[in-house]
Amino acid sequence: MSDTSAFSQAFAEGIGSLQYEGQEVRPLLLLAVNENSKIRVHRVGARADRRQALKLAAVNGTLELEGISAEIISLWCDTSPETVELLVQGPQVRRVEVWNAWDLGGLETAWLGNAGIILEATQKHLTLHCSDGIGPPSFSDLTVEISIANPT
Predict the structure, then answer these.
(1) What is the mean pLDDT, run by run of 10 residues, along the chain of 152 residues?
(2) Model pTM score
(3) Which of 3, 11, 89, 99 could cross-link 28 (Cys pair, CB 3.0–4.6 Å)?
(4) DSSP label at 26?
(5) Alpha carbons 114 and 130: distance in angstroms, whole number
(6) Checking DSSP bridges between strand 62-65 and strand 68-70, what pairing results, if any?
Protein backbone atom coordinates (compact mmCIF):
# COMPACT_ATOMS: atom_id res chain seq x y z
CA MET A 1 0.00 0.00 0.00
CA SER A 2 1.36 3.44 -0.89
CA ASP A 3 1.86 6.12 1.74
CA THR A 4 -0.53 8.49 -0.07
CA SER A 5 -3.61 6.27 -0.41
CA ALA A 6 -6.01 5.78 2.44
CA PHE A 7 -6.99 2.38 3.81
CA SER A 8 -10.63 3.12 2.94
CA GLN A 9 -9.79 3.27 -0.76
CA ALA A 10 -8.31 -0.26 -0.72
CA PHE A 11 -11.16 -1.63 1.41
CA ALA A 12 -13.77 -0.04 -0.93
CA GLU A 13 -12.12 -1.89 -3.83
CA GLY A 14 -12.88 -5.17 -2.05
CA ILE A 15 -9.55 -5.90 -0.35
CA GLY A 16 -10.34 -7.80 2.86
CA SER A 17 -7.10 -6.81 4.59
CA LEU A 18 -3.83 -5.09 3.77
CA GLN A 19 -0.30 -4.87 5.09
CA TYR A 20 0.86 -1.67 6.80
CA GLU A 21 4.31 -1.53 8.41
CA GLY A 22 4.40 -5.32 8.69
CA GLN A 23 0.95 -5.59 10.32
CA GLU A 24 -2.30 -6.90 8.86
CA VAL A 25 -4.99 -4.20 8.87
CA ARG A 26 -8.66 -5.03 8.34
CA PRO A 27 -11.77 -2.83 8.14
CA LEU A 28 -13.79 -4.97 10.54
CA LEU A 29 -13.68 -8.15 12.56
CA LEU A 30 -16.07 -11.07 12.11
CA LEU A 31 -16.84 -13.05 15.27
CA ALA A 32 -18.33 -16.55 15.05
CA VAL A 33 -21.19 -16.81 17.55
CA ASN A 34 -24.35 -18.75 18.33
CA GLU A 35 -27.56 -17.87 20.10
CA ASN A 36 -26.79 -17.17 23.78
CA SER A 37 -23.09 -16.51 23.16
CA LYS A 38 -21.72 -13.91 25.54
CA ILE A 39 -19.35 -11.25 24.23
CA ARG A 40 -17.27 -9.43 26.82
CA VAL A 41 -15.80 -6.10 25.70
CA HIS A 42 -13.19 -4.36 27.85
CA ARG A 43 -11.93 -0.93 26.79
CA VAL A 44 -8.20 -0.68 27.43
CA GLY A 45 -7.74 2.87 26.19
CA ALA A 46 -9.01 5.61 23.88
CA ARG A 47 -7.70 8.95 22.75
CA ALA A 48 -9.00 11.81 24.87
CA ASP A 49 -9.34 14.50 22.20
CA ARG A 50 -11.78 12.75 19.84
CA ARG A 51 -14.72 10.51 20.83
CA GLN A 52 -14.17 6.87 19.84
CA ALA A 53 -16.64 3.98 19.69
CA LEU A 54 -16.69 0.28 19.13
CA LYS A 55 -19.64 -0.87 17.01
CA LEU A 56 -21.03 -4.42 17.13
CA ALA A 57 -23.72 -5.75 14.78
CA ALA A 58 -25.44 -9.12 15.05
CA VAL A 59 -26.13 -10.60 11.61
CA ASN A 60 -29.60 -12.24 11.66
CA GLY A 61 -29.96 -11.59 15.37
CA THR A 62 -29.72 -9.04 18.15
CA LEU A 63 -27.37 -8.07 20.94
CA GLU A 64 -28.73 -7.59 24.44
CA LEU A 65 -27.15 -5.19 26.92
CA GLU A 66 -28.74 -4.51 30.30
CA GLY A 67 -32.17 -5.64 29.10
CA ILE A 68 -32.12 -3.65 25.84
CA SER A 69 -31.89 -5.50 22.51
CA ALA A 70 -30.67 -4.07 19.21
CA GLU A 71 -29.11 -5.29 15.99
CA ILE A 72 -26.29 -2.75 16.38
CA ILE A 73 -24.72 -1.57 19.64
CA SER A 74 -22.42 1.47 19.88
CA LEU A 75 -20.03 1.55 22.83
CA TRP A 76 -18.82 5.17 23.02
CA CYS A 77 -15.73 5.66 25.17
CA ASP A 78 -17.22 8.60 27.06
CA THR A 79 -20.65 7.12 27.82
CA SER A 80 -20.30 3.34 28.10
CA PRO A 81 -18.83 1.37 30.98
CA GLU A 82 -15.21 0.26 30.63
CA THR A 83 -16.37 -3.38 30.54
CA VAL A 84 -19.67 -4.69 29.17
CA GLU A 85 -21.10 -8.13 28.48
CA LEU A 86 -23.44 -8.57 25.52
CA LEU A 87 -25.77 -11.52 25.05
CA VAL A 88 -26.28 -12.71 21.46
CA GLN A 89 -29.91 -13.54 20.65
CA GLY A 90 -31.62 -15.17 17.67
CA PRO A 91 -31.72 -18.75 16.39
CA GLN A 92 -30.32 -17.73 12.97
CA VAL A 93 -27.35 -15.66 14.24
CA ARG A 94 -23.91 -17.01 13.32
CA ARG A 95 -21.71 -13.92 13.34
CA VAL A 96 -21.20 -10.51 14.85
CA GLU A 97 -19.41 -7.78 12.91
CA VAL A 98 -17.15 -5.41 14.88
CA TRP A 99 -15.64 -2.09 13.75
CA ASN A 100 -14.53 1.23 15.13
CA ALA A 101 -16.19 4.62 14.73
CA TRP A 102 -15.39 8.15 15.83
CA ASP A 103 -17.05 11.51 16.24
CA LEU A 104 -16.26 13.99 13.48
CA GLY A 105 -17.85 17.33 14.32
CA GLY A 106 -20.90 15.70 15.86
CA LEU A 107 -21.28 13.05 13.15
CA GLU A 108 -20.66 9.38 13.79
CA THR A 109 -18.07 8.34 11.22
CA ALA A 110 -16.56 4.99 10.23
CA TRP A 111 -14.64 3.30 7.40
CA LEU A 112 -13.15 6.54 6.03
CA GLY A 113 -9.55 7.62 5.57
CA ASN A 114 -7.10 5.46 7.50
CA ALA A 115 -9.67 3.64 9.62
CA GLY A 116 -8.65 0.07 10.34
CA ILE A 117 -8.03 -2.58 12.96
CA ILE A 118 -4.93 -4.56 13.86
CA LEU A 119 -5.87 -7.75 15.65
CA GLU A 120 -3.77 -9.37 18.37
CA ALA A 121 -4.96 -12.82 19.49
CA THR A 122 -4.19 -14.57 22.77
CA GLN A 123 -5.76 -17.66 24.33
CA LYS A 124 -7.97 -15.51 26.56
CA HIS A 125 -9.11 -12.69 24.27
CA LEU A 126 -8.67 -10.70 21.08
CA THR A 127 -7.15 -7.24 21.34
CA LEU A 128 -8.28 -4.75 18.72
CA HIS A 129 -5.96 -1.83 18.04
CA CYS A 130 -8.08 0.67 16.12
CA SER A 131 -7.08 3.62 13.97
CA ASP A 132 -9.75 6.19 13.26
CA GLY A 133 -9.74 7.66 9.77
CA ILE A 134 -8.27 11.04 10.55
CA GLY A 135 -4.67 11.73 9.54
CA PRO A 136 -1.92 9.12 9.45
CA PRO A 137 -2.76 5.66 10.86
CA SER A 138 -2.60 5.52 14.65
CA PHE A 139 -3.56 2.16 16.09
CA SER A 140 -3.87 3.57 19.60
CA ASP A 141 -6.99 5.66 18.89
CA LEU A 142 -9.09 2.92 20.50
CA THR A 143 -7.91 -0.33 22.08
CA VAL A 144 -10.33 -3.00 23.30
CA GLU A 145 -10.21 -6.63 24.40
CA ILE A 146 -12.97 -8.97 23.28
CA SER A 147 -13.69 -12.48 24.51
CA ILE A 148 -16.52 -14.83 23.55
CA ALA A 149 -18.17 -17.56 25.60
CA ASN A 150 -20.22 -19.79 23.32
CA PRO A 151 -22.94 -21.97 24.86
CA THR A 152 -22.27 -25.70 24.95
Answers:
(1) 71 93 96 97 96 98 95 97 97 97 94 96 96 95 96 75
(2) 0.93
(3) 99
(4) B
(5) 10
(6) antiparallel
